[in-house]
Amino acid sequence: MDIVMAASEAFPFCKTGGLADVVGALSQQLAGRKGNKVVLFLPHYRNIHRLSSLKVVPGVYYIPVGGHIEQVSLSYVAWGKVVVFFVGNRHYFDRPDFYRTKNGDYADNDERFILFSRAVLEGCKFIGFRPDIIHCHDWQTGLIPAYLKTVYKLDAFFTRTHSLLTIHNIAYQGHFPYSSFEKAGFHPVDFVPSKFEYYGGISFLKSGIVFADNVNTVSPNYARELQDVPSMGFGLEGLLKYRGKNFCGIVNGIDTEIWDPETDTLLPMGYDAVTFSKNKPISKQQLQQKIGLEENTERPVVGIVSRLDYQKGLELALPVLEKWHQKVQFAVLGCGDPVLEKQYQQLAKKYPKDIAYVGKLDEELAHEIYAGSDLFLMPSRYEPCGLSQMIAMKYGTLPMVTKVGGLADTVVGYKEDSDNAAATGFFIEHFSEKSISDTLEKALGLYGNKKIWNKLVKNAMLRDNSWDKSAQDYFTLYKKTVA
């Protein structure tokens, strides 16, 4: 199958969050299957210029954006069996950040991703790659399915091309005014609620949901929530329920070549489900040394690796950290909301031997926190899938998570009245400070019982959260989409 992946970011080229990890890993998984050719399109952001192996496709092509024409170039790099093409336009993509400044989103994000969406389609023609399916990710590529069904409907090049839209986080929808609909070049007759119109303007994500041949999201439970829980659907629950026959959830996987404590070169000593009790404490000691916590491998460490924003619920964790700091150490890595950043900084300054906070993106430290912690905290308000809880389990660090979205699909909660033959972590039953504290207390009650604790750790480490099954589920969905 000839597959185009279209996304605004993909690891290791450009990353702000889990979207990049998913796009990168899934592209490689699909390309590794016999008979597949995978081409990945990304914007040519400023940091891409540093790639030494980058090659340039001769020539340029042109994309209309509103009342003007923009010149586009393509560069590419071979990445394993995936060919990655970067859509170049200095005016729109040669900037310090991908989406925003400290003062907010770029004012022309509508134009930037109108250009990118059409540049993917015209780019396929430019390089002569006729896809069976274009897999679009989030609102930034939501216009591609719409273009295929409208502007490019009669284009013979795309006669056999179908589209799949994956919603990674429905809270981000790409809302813009009517003028953005005009800039995109769609016909005014299509500006109706059943197609493009959304509260007087246009939502790039809604457009993708309407026009894509199939739509999915990143876990089965999140797919149910988006249709049945109004607070989760962010206004699109009715449309998703309407498209229910063409909407499903496929849980994400993690890249086990990157996330594997047995082979992780960032750890002082590797370990697996047999050797963790001996070697994992060495990672804890290294973590404590590195971030200034009191060196005591008998003391439980709770890790947090997260964006600091509304979705993650980490404002509720602040009083929990203060309550428990004398018994538990906390290692927090993340940035985002300036208010939350300051609050975590102040707490770490107040209890420097018990609480450490690092307010930046740091891949190396993330590995060390996953390995050096005993528990991992994710008190999310909502969580489409979540990768951190799966990475934590792989590293033998038991997750404490709210029972939402993909967290409910990937964690098996400990129950006191069960043999817990498959338990891998702990559920925070209610979204509240008290419930987080109660869950931590329950987990700490087990921490001293090494027989039960080690059983849970072993369960967590042996759970298969790799991309193998998820990639097969996507390929099955591809075949259904193009049939």
Please characterize this protein's 3D structure.
- The protein has 2 domains: 2-253 and 468-482, Rossmann fold (3-Layer(aba) Sandwich); 276-464, 3-Layer(aba) Sandwich (Rossmann fold), CATH 3.40.50.
- 38% of the residues lie in helices and 19% in strands.
- The chain is built from 18 helices and 21 strands.
- The protein has helices at 18-31, 90-93, 109-127, 143-149, 178-184, 204-211, 220-228, 230-233, 237-242, 276-291, 317-324, 338-350, 363-372, 388-394, 405-410, 433-447, 450-462, 467-482; strands at 2-6, 37-43, 55-56, 61-65, 68-79, 82-88, 100-101, 104-105, 133-137, 162-167, 175-176, 197-198, 201-203, 214-217, 247-249, 301-305, 329-333, 355-358, 375-378, 398-402, 426-428.
- The strands form 4 sheets. Strands 1, 2, 3, 4, 5, 6, 9, 10, 14 and 15 form a 10-stranded mixed β-sheet that branches. A 6-stranded parallel β-sheet has the order 18-17-16-19-20-21, with helices on both faces.
- Helix 11 crosses helix 16 (433-447).
- The protein is globular, with a radius of gyration of 23 Å.
What topology emerges from the helices and strands here?
Elements lengths: L1 E5 L11 H14 L5 E7 L11 E2 L4 E5 L2 E12 L2 E7 L1 H4 L6 E2 L2 E2 L3 H19 L5 E5 L5 H7 L12 E6 L7 E2 L1 H7 L12 E2 L2 E3 H8 L2 E4 L2 H9 L1 H4 L3 H6 L4 E3 L26 H16 L9 E5 L11 H8 L4 E5 L4 H13 L4 E4 L4 H10 L2 E4 L9 H7 L3 E5 L2 H6 L15 E3 L4 H15 L2 H13 L4 H16 L1
Parallel strand pairs: 1-2, 1-9, 2-6, 9-10, 10-14, 14-15, 16-17, 16-19, 17-18, 19-20, 20-21
Antiparallel strand pairs: 3-5, 4-5, 5-6, 7-8, 11-13, 12-13
Helix pairs in contact: 1-18, 4-6, 10-13, 11-16
